[in-house]
User: Which sequence fits this backbone?
């Protein structure tokens, strides 16, 4: 086993880094879960819980409406994920490789920048009884007052699920676009067409399984997120009873500290609910696969498609349109003067809302920016170390694709699958017992846990796709590993690195729960401020805050898209794909 | 797979060949592969024991999957740890086997030019130029001289993506030579070029090898390449005669 010079030397620290980084990122999840399990069984000396007991669970189960809350969370997780995934599959089946496909890519890409809360506010402004939809319907249907309907905050949580779908469907579609080329769509579609299969059937039977396999992790992350969501639920969700996670936050922040035992027990229930959502989803995957095998085995060609293709565009079009029009409507409200009901547009516009909002928003905006840029940069450094350590374990990767080992991937993506609320509680309790007050560095660390997985998701594929021979050439010219990284690999990956940074930045800006719980209300960001306005109902101020919340990620994505073009304007091969 | 032991009767045919026992003591100059064996698991891919004199080219032939790329990776220092390699590589008396790739002073040419896409042609060459040459004008001068040597005067500021295949191949050669390697490793460097260009680039490369008195290893499956290299050929062919020992195909110059 001689040879392969520094490969051997760098292997030991490489393997250590490849494990240390994921362990560091998964540690808060583990600590948080322990910190929630102990009080759930009555043990939290700081609050006088000296002995283990089942009292917190008894108290929890005696809470009125608990079953409804849990069922709402379960339904939200399953329905959101099912409709979003189905919408993506149908859209791609109907439009892959067409002008509609290209249009969707262009129009939906900016939606990645829109935080969940802003998208939810936008939808609320559209579908509320006094919103755009009913203003447009007022004249034909002849009413001069908003109808007395409970649409936003309906007891079944339909508005909440719609708000989640409007944000998650475009997200999954963008992820699927990135995964498509590896599923070899063009040749498979030609083959299935030559066998007489209709376009949609051909796609769903031959291409989609390969796409789904690659986007499975983001899909599961959507399921976990939707079953434990708080911000969208506060804006669009029912309140009597609210979904489980919303009630947990209320208990956790209750001045009566003894409620924290029950809240911890509730966090374990939330963990069980999310676990159930994931298990049911996986069972659904099996069922779908069985159905597909049966259809494939039957040999029906489904060549007649008729209006099916048109219908297949509706979910994605609705989701995209609701976010776009929602944001526009937020803007209109933020500049509206007096605006009576049936008028579709406000008769007068002014900047008085903005001049009131901006001085108050400056502080939260600064905190948001600082936390986002630092957590995203830190995440980038950690992810680069992790990916590079992993890659160096395979010095000549030709013929064997490098990827993160399942154990490592499991650890990094853990914070996306475990509901935030389940371990953030425990983390908060742990910080309390360590006597650590809220601070910017702690908030950055908390955001890092959720930012790093998305940075890793965005950067891993491009990182491993760089031809290893470029660095071999650099080494043969006498350049060491550091020069290889900073003068060859990173510059070649400018676009991918900046995109990953922007995704990390946007993820941090959108974080509601970690900011609320770890910041303990003393480090307000633009997101916590915006969500806090939900109950107040001042639409002009909400409009301004939701737009400010969207502004930061939007700027980050704009920069990450234009900067490489400027830097490498005279290098044709560096054009972002 | 074939096993290559020096076939005793043929040793005298080759001027550059040395006997196994002698190779254990590295010769003063040239590139020496001493008792090199590469295996994947239990499966031995190749065994080779050769010396390449300055200005000479050892051609390693064989179809894809025959292990010739792993020999290339082993000598260059990039062998995947999945492989088991034995033996040593000496270059002008230095033992390369445990050296980091950047300390081996080996020039690499691949079938793709692999010019760094974010650098201009000139920057690609400056990246290769030894740090010992100092001063902006001095370094630029050295690069321009090398560009002229490969008939590419005036391309210093060009975007590599705008070069033709033949031009890119010449820039790649210029970049390799600028680092002043002591030996060259060529991995099918001509296979992506069209027929007319191939001969020109081939001549350019081999004339530089002879001029600069560098030993070289050429990995290829194109017999015409071997012909042009005009020297020692090792065929690690596809026939599965591992049990029957060596088939050592050799053509003295």
Assistant:
């Amino acid at each position: 086993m001689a040879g392969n010079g520094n490969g051997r030397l760098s292997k030991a620290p490489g393997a250590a880094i490849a494990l240390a980084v994921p362990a560091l990122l998964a540690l808060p999840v583990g600590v948080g879960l322990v910190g929630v399990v102990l009080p759930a069984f009555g043990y939290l000396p700081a609050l006088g819980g000296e002995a283990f007991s089942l009292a917190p669970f008894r108290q929890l189960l005696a809470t009125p409406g608990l079953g409804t809350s849990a069922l709402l969370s379960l339904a939200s997780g399953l329905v959101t994920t099912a409709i979003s995934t189905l919408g993506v599959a149908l859209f791609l089946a109907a439009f892959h490789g067409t002008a509609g496909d290209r249009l969707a890519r262009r129009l939906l890409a900016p939606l990645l920048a829109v935080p969940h809360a802003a998208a939810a506010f936008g939808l609320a402004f559209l579908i509320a009884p006094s919103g755009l939809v009913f203003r447009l319907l007022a004249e034909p249907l002849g009413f001069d007052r908003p109808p007395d309907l409970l649409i936003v905050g309906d007891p079944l949580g339909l508005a909440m699920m719609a708000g989640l779908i409007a944000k998650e469907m475009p997200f999954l579609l963008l992820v699927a676009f990135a995964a498509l080329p590896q599923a070899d769509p063009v040749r498979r579609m030609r083959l299935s067409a030559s066998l007489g299969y209709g376009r949609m059937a051909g796609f769903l039977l031959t291409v989609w399984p390969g796409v789904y396999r690659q986007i499975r992790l983001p899909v599961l992350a959507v399921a976990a997120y939707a079953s434990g969501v708080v911000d969208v639920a506060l804006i669009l969700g029912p309140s009597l009873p609210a979904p489980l996670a919303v009630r947990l936050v209320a208990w956790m922040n209750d001045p009566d500290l003894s409620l924290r035992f029950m809240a911890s027990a509730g966090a374990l229930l939330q963990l069980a609910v999310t676990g159930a959502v994931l298990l049911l989803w996986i069972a659904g995957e099996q069922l779908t696969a069985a159905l597909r095998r049966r259809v494939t085995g039957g040999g029906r060609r489904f060549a007649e498609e008729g209006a099916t293709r048109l219908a297949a565009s509706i979910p994605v079009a609705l989701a995209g349109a609701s976010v776009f029009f929602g944001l526009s409507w937020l803007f209109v409200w933020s500049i509206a003067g007096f605006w009576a009901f049936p008028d579709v547009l406000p008769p007068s516009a002014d900047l008085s809302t903005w001049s009131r909002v901006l001085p108050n928003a400056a502080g939260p905006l600064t905190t948001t920016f600082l936390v986002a840029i630092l957590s995203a940069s830190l995440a980038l450094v950690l992810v680069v170390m992790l990916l590079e350590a992993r890659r160096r374990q395979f010095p000549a990767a030709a013929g064997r694709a490098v990827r993160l080992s399942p154990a490592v991937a499991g650890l990094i993506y853990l914070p996306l699958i475990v509901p935030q609320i389940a371990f953030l509680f425990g983390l908060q309790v742990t910080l309390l017992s360590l006597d650590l007050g809220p601070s910017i560095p702690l908030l950055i660390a908390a955001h890092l846990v959720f930012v790093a997985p998305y940075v890793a998701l965005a950067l891993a594929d491009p990182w491993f796709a760089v031809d290893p021979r470029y660095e071999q050439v650099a080494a043969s010219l006498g350049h060491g590993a550091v020069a290889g990284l900073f003068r060859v690999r990173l510059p070649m990956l400018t676009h991918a690195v900046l995109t990953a940074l922007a995704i990390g930045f946007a993820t941090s800006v959108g974080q509601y729960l970690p900011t609320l719980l770890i910041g303990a209300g003393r480090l307000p960001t633009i997101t916590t401020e915006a969500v806090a306005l939900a109950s107040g109902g001042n639409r002009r101020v909400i409009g301004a805050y939701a737009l400010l919340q969207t502004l930061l990620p939007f700027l980050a994505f704009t920069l990450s898209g234009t900067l490489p073009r400027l830097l490498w304007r005279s290098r044709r091969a560096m054009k972002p794909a | 797979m074939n096993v290559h032991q020096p076939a005793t009767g043929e040793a005298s045919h080759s001027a550059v060949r040395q006997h196994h026992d002698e190779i254990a003591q590295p010769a003063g100059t040239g590139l020496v592969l001493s008792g090199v064996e590469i295996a994947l698991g239990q499966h031995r891919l190749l065994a080779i024991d050769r010396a390449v004199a300055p200005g000479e080219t050892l051609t390693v032939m064989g179809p894809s999957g025959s292990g010739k790329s792993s020999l290339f990776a082993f000598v260059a220092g990039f062998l995947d740890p999945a492989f088991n390699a034995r033996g040593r590589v000496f270059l002008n008396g230095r033992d390369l086997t445990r050296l980091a790739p950047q300390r081996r002073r080996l020039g690499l040419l691949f079938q793709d030019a692999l010019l760094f896409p974010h650098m201009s042609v000139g920057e690609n060459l400056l990246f290769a130029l030894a740090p010992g040459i100092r001063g902006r004008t001095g370094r630029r001068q050295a690069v321009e001289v090398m560009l002229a040597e490969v008939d590419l005067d005036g391309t210093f500021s060009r975007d590599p993506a705008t070069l033709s295949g033949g031009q890119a191949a010449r820039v790649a050669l210029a970049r390799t030579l600028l680092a002043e390697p002591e030996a060259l490793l060529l991995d099918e460097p001509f296979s992506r070029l069209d027929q007319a260009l191939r001969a020109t680039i081939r001549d350019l490369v081999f004339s530089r090898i002879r001029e600069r008195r560098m030993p070289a290893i050429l990995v290829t499956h194109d017999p015409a390449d071997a012909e042009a290299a005009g020297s020692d050929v090792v065929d690690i062919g596809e026939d599965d005669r591992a049990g029957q020992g060596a088939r050592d195909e050799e053509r003295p110059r």
Notes: Chain A touches chain B through 41 residues (CB under 8 Å). The CA atoms of residues 73 and 227 of chain A lie 5 Å apart. Confidence is low (pLDDT under 50) at residues 1-10 of chain A. The first helix of chain A runs from residue 5 to 40.
